[in-house]
UniProtKB/TrEMBL annotation:
Matches recorded under Pfam families: Amino_oxidase (PF01593)
Protein name, entry field: Protoporphyrinogen oxidase
InterPro entries according to UniProt: Amino_oxidase, FAD/NAD-bd_sf
PANTHER family assigned: AMINE OXIDASE (PTHR42841)
MF terms in GO: oxidoreductase activity
Residue intervals of the Amine oxidase domain: 13-408
Length: 416
């Protein structure tokens, strides 16, 4: 092994991938993790016989970086059915496979949500993006997604009924102001792959990354208070000055000179409920296009993977984008909405747990697929990793960790 002291702050996906790449290059890094476990924003709790992911999260199997670092077979991935259940004002409709095979959508169901022209445009968009590289997507002009959809010619009916509730749940903002680059990237990933979760929860992804590490040391409950130059100051009073440092989390938490340099991240509230059985009975996302509803999307995680429950009850995940309600009032309001959607008495939806996630995904103005070494370099000794450098996705988190590690390795090469 090469004897250089390299530290990584953060044992999330970016930090773990950085460590994997450093090991490949012959180094033995040390990871400082402020919490008691790995995963960062990707965690799964065991509560009352349920597996609860920290927020509704999905792995897209078409992600290029995920293919590099994950063994999908060993994860025993469980797949979402393509499409969505649309809970309309009076009726509920199922749109099957609109992003993968839009022309095969049942005409009657689709007509309730959009027009035949919308169907054709979905097909054309899918075909266009199949032939467009990811680099081409991220190098093109960026406009708000809602503007992109309007200019592409989709009807307001289809934008309101499908695109808005579907992509609000991904972008975590209500007006689809997110860059069209991200829309095309996510659309391409959904149309070329599948949405999935590991059988036993999203924590299995960082667990798999950690198992690839052989010589990396992870020190838990090591909270960093500041980074000054290349010196790390810990909450316990200890100071460390490594030869190289990768900050695999948003650095303004530790570096005063970077405070105020990052936009406020996107937040989400995820509520979990249990029910005697699923009222959807299919591994499909439920979308609520009604503007006056708290619920944006819902899914029975036990319809996707039965292992999310070990007590025989169904587990329902509900995502809320914005509310001022306190937990008790919010739970009651959501139970009432679930009753109106399912016609099942509100009291049968047993509340399990809520997650108020203030940092769900970063807000990135100039979304990118990759960056040169210089853009993740603070100094000759300090480097950055995290999806905030590229775009808010699992793919970007992995890519940023890889790029940071490559930058560190490159920094040791002699200059001629």
């Amino acid at each position: 092994m090469i004897e250089h002291e390299i530290y990584i702050i953060g044992a999330g996906v970016a930090g773990l991938v950085a460590a994997i790449e450093l090991e490949k290059a012959g180094y033995s890094p040390v990871i400082l993790e402020g919490s008691g476990g790995i995963g960062g924003r990707m965690k799964t709790d065991e509560v009352d016989g349920f597996l609860l992911d920290h927020g509704f999260q999905v792995l897209l199997t078409a992600y290029p970086e995920a293919k590099k670092y994950l063994d999908f077979t060993a994860l025993n991935l469980k797949y979402f059915e393509p499409g969505a259940v649309i809970f309309g004002t009076k009726e509920t409709f199922i749109i099957s496979d609109p992003l993968r095979n839009p022309l095969k959508v049942v005409s009657m169901a689709f007509s309730q949500v959009g027009s035949f022209l919308d169907k054709v445009k979905m097909f054309n968009l899918t075909q266009m993006l199949k032939n467009k590289s990811i680099d081409e997507i991220f190098n093109q002009k960026s406009i708000p997604t809602h503007q992109y959809l309007n200019e592409y010619g989709f009807t307001e009916q289809f934008i309101a009924n499908f695109f808005k509730p579907f992509f609000r749940g991904i972008f975590l903002e209500k007006e689809l102001n997110t860059s069209s680059r991200m829309f095309e990237f996510v659309f391409k990933m959904f149309s070329q792959g599948k949405g999935a979760v590991p059988e036993k929860g999203m924590i299995e992804i960082p667990n798999m990354l950690r198992r690839q590490l052989k010589t990396t040391q992870i020190i838990f409950n090591s909270k960093v208070t500041s980074v000054q130059g290349q010196e790390i100051h810990l909450e316990n009073g200890e100071s460390i000055q490594p030869d190289r440092l990768i900050i695999a989390t948003q650095p303004d938490r530790f570096m005063k000179q970077l405070q105020g340099q990052f936009a406020k991240p996107k937040s989400v509230i995820t509520l979990y409920f249990s029910l005697h059985k699923s009222f959807m009975s299919r591994a499909m996302l439920g979308l609520i296009p009604r503007e006056n509803h708290l619920i944006n999307n819902l899914v029975f995680m036990t319809d996707v993977s039965s292992a999310y429950s070990s007590n025989g009850r169904a587990l329902l995940s509900v995502s809320i984008l914005d509310t001022d309600l306190k937990e008790k009032e919010l739970v009651k309001a959501v139970q009432n909405e679930l009753e109106s959607l399912s016609h099942i008495n509100a009291e049968y939806f047993k509340f399990v747990k809520s997650y108020y996630i203030n940092y769900a995904i970063p807000t990135v103005d100039d979304m990118k697929n990759t960056i040169p070494f210089t853009e993740c370099k603070i100094s000759d000794h300090v480097f950055l990793a995290g999806d905030y450098l590229l775009n808010g996705s699992i793919n970007a988190a992995m890519a940023s960790g890889r790029i940071a590690a490559e930058a560190v390795v490159h920094s040791y090469k002699p200059m001629y």
